[in-house]
Amino acid sequence: MTAKRLDITIEQGADFVRDFPVAAANGAPFDISGYRAALQVRAAPGAPTALVTLTSDNGGLALVSGRVRAAIQEAVTADLSPGAYVYDLKLVSPAGFTSRWYEGACTVAPQVTTFDFPAPNPSPSDGQLNFSSASNSAYAAII
Length: 143
Description:
Strand content: 35-45%
Order of helices and strands: EEEEEEEHEEH
Radius of gyration: 22 Å
Shape: globular
Structural class: mainly beta
Largest sheet: 6 strands, mixed
Protein backbone atom coordinates (compact mmCIF):
# COMPACT_ATOMS: atom_id res chain seq x y z
CA MET A 1 0.00 0.00 0.00
CA THR A 2 1.19 3.51 -0.79
CA ALA A 3 0.85 6.19 1.89
CA LYS A 4 -1.79 8.82 1.23
CA ARG A 5 -0.51 12.39 0.91
CA LEU A 6 -2.14 14.74 3.42
CA ASP A 7 -0.57 18.02 4.49
CA ILE A 8 -1.40 19.17 8.03
CA THR A 9 -1.07 22.39 10.03
CA ILE A 10 -0.39 22.56 13.74
CA GLU A 11 -1.24 25.91 15.28
CA GLN A 12 1.41 26.91 17.80
CA GLY A 13 -0.06 27.47 21.26
CA ALA A 14 -3.36 25.69 20.55
CA ASP A 15 -4.60 22.14 21.04
CA PHE A 16 -4.23 20.02 17.90
CA VAL A 17 -6.73 17.25 17.17
CA ARG A 18 -6.87 15.53 13.80
CA ASP A 19 -8.60 12.36 12.60
CA PHE A 20 -6.90 10.25 9.97
CA PRO A 21 -9.41 7.96 8.24
CA VAL A 22 -8.27 4.38 7.75
CA ALA A 23 -10.31 2.64 5.06
CA ALA A 24 -10.08 -0.63 3.16
CA ALA A 25 -9.65 -0.64 -0.62
CA ASN A 26 -13.45 -0.67 -1.05
CA GLY A 27 -13.79 2.44 1.15
CA ALA A 28 -15.24 0.66 4.17
CA PRO A 29 -13.74 1.51 7.58
CA PHE A 30 -10.77 -0.74 8.28
CA ASP A 31 -10.81 -2.67 11.54
CA ILE A 32 -7.62 -1.65 13.38
CA SER A 33 -8.40 -3.52 16.60
CA GLY A 34 -5.15 -4.70 18.15
CA TYR A 35 -3.02 -2.42 15.96
CA ARG A 36 -0.40 0.00 17.25
CA ALA A 37 0.36 3.35 15.62
CA ALA A 38 3.08 6.00 15.54
CA LEU A 39 3.32 9.49 14.04
CA GLN A 40 6.46 11.61 14.04
CA VAL A 41 7.16 15.16 12.90
CA ARG A 42 10.73 15.90 11.81
CA ALA A 43 12.59 18.78 10.16
CA ALA A 44 13.25 16.55 7.13
CA PRO A 45 13.14 12.85 6.28
CA GLY A 46 15.99 11.16 8.11
CA ALA A 47 16.53 14.05 10.54
CA PRO A 48 18.04 12.57 13.71
CA THR A 49 15.54 14.12 16.15
CA ALA A 50 11.75 14.06 16.08
CA LEU A 51 10.04 17.31 17.10
CA VAL A 52 6.86 15.42 17.98
CA THR A 53 6.31 11.71 18.62
CA LEU A 54 2.76 10.45 19.07
CA THR A 55 2.01 6.78 19.58
CA SER A 56 -0.87 4.60 20.62
CA ASP A 57 1.37 3.52 23.52
CA ASN A 58 1.97 7.07 24.87
CA GLY A 59 -1.65 8.20 24.40
CA GLY A 60 -0.94 10.66 21.59
CA LEU A 61 -2.85 8.49 19.12
CA ALA A 62 -6.23 6.84 19.72
CA LEU A 63 -7.25 3.98 17.44
CA VAL A 64 -10.88 3.27 16.70
CA SER A 65 -12.37 1.36 13.81
CA GLY A 66 -11.96 3.46 10.72
CA ARG A 67 -9.71 6.23 12.08
CA VAL A 68 -6.66 7.26 14.03
CA ARG A 69 -7.06 10.39 16.17
CA ALA A 70 -3.92 12.44 16.85
CA ALA A 71 -3.94 14.86 19.77
CA ILE A 72 -1.29 17.31 20.98
CA GLN A 73 -1.91 19.57 23.96
CA GLU A 74 -1.38 23.34 23.85
CA ALA A 75 1.54 23.08 26.29
CA VAL A 76 3.42 21.02 23.68
CA THR A 77 2.46 23.03 20.58
CA ALA A 78 3.47 26.25 22.35
CA ASP A 79 7.07 25.00 22.41
CA LEU A 80 7.19 24.12 18.70
CA SER A 81 9.10 26.51 16.45
CA PRO A 82 7.04 27.81 13.53
CA GLY A 83 8.16 26.42 10.20
CA ALA A 84 7.89 23.70 7.60
CA TYR A 85 8.38 20.06 8.60
CA VAL A 86 7.41 16.56 7.43
CA TYR A 87 5.49 13.75 9.08
CA ASP A 88 4.19 10.27 8.50
CA LEU A 89 1.78 7.93 10.24
CA LYS A 90 2.48 4.20 10.52
CA LEU A 91 0.32 1.33 11.71
CA VAL A 92 1.62 -2.01 12.96
CA SER A 93 -0.71 -5.00 12.78
CA PRO A 94 -1.00 -7.53 15.61
CA ALA A 95 1.10 -9.86 13.39
CA GLY A 96 3.87 -7.23 13.18
CA PHE A 97 3.24 -5.99 9.62
CA THR A 98 4.11 -2.27 9.34
CA SER A 99 2.43 0.04 6.84
CA ARG A 100 2.59 3.80 6.21
CA TRP A 101 -0.93 5.20 5.87
CA TYR A 102 -0.23 8.94 5.65
CA GLU A 103 2.66 11.26 4.85
CA GLY A 104 3.05 14.91 4.03
CA ALA A 105 4.13 18.37 4.98
CA CYS A 106 3.52 19.60 8.50
CA THR A 107 3.39 23.36 8.94
CA VAL A 108 3.62 24.86 12.41
CA ALA A 109 1.76 28.18 12.18
CA PRO A 110 3.01 30.85 14.61
CA GLN A 111 0.82 32.06 17.43
CA VAL A 112 0.16 35.72 18.12
CA THR A 113 -1.60 35.67 21.50
CA THR A 114 0.75 34.40 24.19
CA PHE A 115 -0.94 34.88 27.55
CA ASP A 116 -2.63 32.47 29.93
CA PHE A 117 -6.26 33.02 30.66
CA PRO A 118 -6.77 33.87 34.35
CA ALA A 119 -8.82 31.55 36.51
CA PRO A 120 -12.44 32.67 36.62
CA ASN A 121 -13.45 34.64 39.70
CA PRO A 122 -16.47 33.21 41.49
CA SER A 123 -19.29 35.72 41.65
CA PRO A 124 -21.22 36.31 44.86
CA SER A 125 -24.43 34.34 45.18
CA ASP A 126 -26.57 37.46 45.53
CA GLY A 127 -25.45 38.84 42.17
CA GLN A 128 -23.76 41.85 43.78
CA LEU A 129 -20.19 42.80 43.00
CA ASN A 130 -18.16 44.18 45.87
CA PHE A 131 -15.34 46.58 45.13
CA SER A 132 -13.01 47.82 47.77
CA SER A 133 -9.84 49.79 47.48
CA ALA A 134 -8.03 47.03 49.40
CA SER A 135 -8.81 44.14 47.08
CA ASN A 136 -9.60 45.86 43.79
CA SER A 137 -7.55 49.03 43.76
CA ALA A 138 -7.51 49.30 40.00
CA TYR A 139 -11.30 49.08 39.83
CA ALA A 140 -11.84 51.38 42.82
CA ALA A 141 -9.78 54.08 41.13
CA ILE A 142 -12.08 53.92 38.08
CA ILE A 143 -15.28 54.04 40.09
